[in-house]
Amino acid sequence: MVDLEYNKRIAISSDLDGLRECIELSQNISGIFQLDNDKSFAFQTVLLEAVNNAIVHGNKSNKDLLTIVTVKINSDKIFIEVEDQGDGFDLDLVASPVNGGNISLESGRGIFFIRQLSDGFNTVGKGNIVNIIIKR
Fold it and tell me: What's the pTM?
């Protein structure tokens, strides 16, 4: 990996306060690195979708469980890792909300947005850790 310009890890509560911390984090990073509007939007959207999924689906909104967010930035890419304390999931089993009869389903929309707005997206281990890459 090219030398890091930024490396931050935070542990947030599994509630709206945790999401607020991530909004502040994304705004600070967008300002520090002078991300253009498209990159700033992509970064904030994928971060919030991944964290929201970790809080709601992974940790089941249990305030006693933490979500760990790590953001690393080098000259080329933004790396986001979000880890929850849940059972994990299989990314390949999440149906696309734009295919066939899934259009009216609420599930899968966050994953769809992350896939569309990022340059790399995968899960690790049992599926309770997601890694996302956005090119700068």
Answer: 0.90
